Records
---
Amino acid sequence: MQALRKTRPEAGLELVDIPAPVVEADSSDVLVKVSATGICGSDLHVDDWTPSYAFITRSIPVTIGHEFVGVAQTGPMAGRRVVVRPSVTCGICAACVAGDHDGCEKRRGIGMTRDGAFAPWVRVPLRNCVPVPDSLSDELAALTEPLTISMQALRIAGDVAGQRVLVMGPGTIGQGIAALARRAGARQVVVSGFDDAARFDALRRMGFDALVDVAAQPLAEGARPHTGGEPFDVIFEATGVPETITESLALLRRNGIVVVTGIHARPLLLDLTPMVRNQQQLRGSFRPPESDWPLALELMGEMDAVMRPMVSHVLPLSQAGEGFALAHAKAASKVLLKPDARDE
Ligand SMILES: [Zn+2]
Ligand SMILES: [Zn+2]
């Protein structure tokens, strides 16, 4: 089968032919026939080989792709459409043995440290599969994983009802956060980006018009027409650019909250004193609890029309190079890759 792989510990990905995975009858794994897989920001980092992804070195060669939907071919869910939690727990640590899978510290990542879904077939643990309601399209279902990341960011922020919210970063995570913040009753949602026309276009189609392009003007200046110069109550960072944290604190009210979701390739030098004096809260947000996955699917059923514009391109896997180029050039909102017919 055709698979998009990291084959060497250096920049680049390779579309190669490898044998399809096999699942033994007594296995706790199932075989999933992939329908669609999203290109994530972290896939771009793996492609670029930025330092924060060097942890996958020991797993190379590995097929990447972790945001996907497919049809289970084996096991008790055979024949059902599923999305798959990419984080695989170890099953043997103290937390896992106690049944606290969210507490597992020894994880492997499908599409990072074990083979993922930029391929027609993928082997995954049965317990990672979550059934998809029939009403949900493959395109939307492929957004489940990023939506759970956005859900976790909202949870970490707390109640945003009536709050003035800034989302820094108009990519899939930022788009999801914006949609969820509006749904939660935020009084205002402003989204900023850097030269992000394609993602701004998706946001406009999602009904957001308070958009600030910081390539054209400073953020404070661009936000002013929307906020009247008032500070934000809650700011979500979804850029992966460390300096945006410094910028966010300057736009945040006293006692306000910044939720950081980006994976930052570089450290940040930050003057902490203004943050301390203003009692601003800087919070990290990463992995949602497993129980969020069925909730995310439910939410997508409800937000179907709002979320639909998030996917801008659907390409065959054989054109993975073009898909990645679009994503790298920020010429796309979300690119999905679908296995080619030849692999069916
Ligand atoms: Zn992702
Ligand atoms: Zn564990």
Note: Residues 144-157 form the longest helix (14 residues).
---
Amino acid sequence: MILPGATLGILGGGQLGQMFTLAARRMGYGVWVLDPDPDCPAAAVADRHLCAPYDDFSALALLADHCAAVTAEFENVPASAMIYLEARIPVRPGSTALAIAQDRVREKTFFQDLGLEVAPFALLRQEDDVELVARKLSFPAILKTTRFGYDGKGQQNVTTASELPAAWASLNTPEAILESRIKLVQEFSVVLARSVEGMMVFYPLAENRHHHAVLDLSIVPARIPEALQNQARQSAACIAEALNYVGVLAVEFFVEEEGRLLVNEMAPRPHNSGHYTIDACVSSQFDQQVRALCGLSLADIRLLSPVVMMNLLGDLWEEGGPDWQKLFQHPQIKVHLYGKKEARPGRKMGHVNALSSDAERALAVLETLRQDWNWPR
Ligand SMILES: Nc1ncnc2c1ncn2[C@@H]1O[C@H](COP(=O)(O)OP(=O)(O)O)[C@@H](O)[C@H]1O
Ligand SMILES: [Mg+2]
């Protein structure tokens, strides 16, 4: 067990790294962050910011020498860095989970091997015949890079097979997957934590709404039939067990028209759709990440209030920034801003959690705010 007073390391200092750092420091741990961006959000709250690339071995050596354990805020840490650290200190979750999550083909194949259903897909590589690949699938479809995609980045809509060559050329990537577009009824996610001893806790499911492939709202409690919720928890547990996972794991699900459940993707870390836990649960997903990393018992995940989380995107900053007065008029809304210096359209600048006696009321509060801000969706 790693106890308060020890120093923890994190690879990546974005908002997820920042919220991990705040949770760890509140619990009495020191935190060192490795991130190449001098202005990364976690730098402002960490004990030390190692400003270096993720494969800088002198920075990794410093981290290994000074930290009792290391985690990551994102899945795209180079494998060489993970292997280097794993030989020296506990790294949770480990390199296997990250390697699978950073590659859409490996990830989908891994789910299928566990007997879980995914959207129909086909691999497209440079040497492949585009027309042949197009014949394997039904359209409309989405072309996605196998690596480094997030918030809909590295994705192209492909309405018909004839659009595929142009979409493939514009992605300019060595490898992509072509995925049939599912008629979605709902999207939701399961965030779980698994301890060193293999104990698991599941946060209440979040019903997720996206706008242009970026998470917009997470609604909790999710309005999803109990049987589907159970199936999703079982699937997520099966993934965590297969990886002998330690840490916080998020799994995204699609519900198809006929009520069929598909696994979309996983994130080997806290997830945007779990930010509601900061204000609405006994312990947040970041508290849990600290506990799992340190080999401690997991905390209570109980929901204290219905809640809706809304992301604040850089779009809101286009004309001088959001009208904060209008936001602070709502006493039910809790504000989280990451301190990012530069706002760009689509960039996640912060989020808010609206708490109310039921999710519909919380949604209505955010709808009012959106109207006040003239930020329709
Ligand atoms: N096959 C699909 N059918 C329908 N919608 C999809 C499909 N794939 C992705 N989407 C939509 O785009 C969003 C982002 O895609 P996702 O594969 O999760 O990539 P990212 O890594 O950018 O989160 C999903 O949450 C969903 O709303
Ligand atoms: Mg996603």
Note: The chain is about 30% helix and 25% strand.
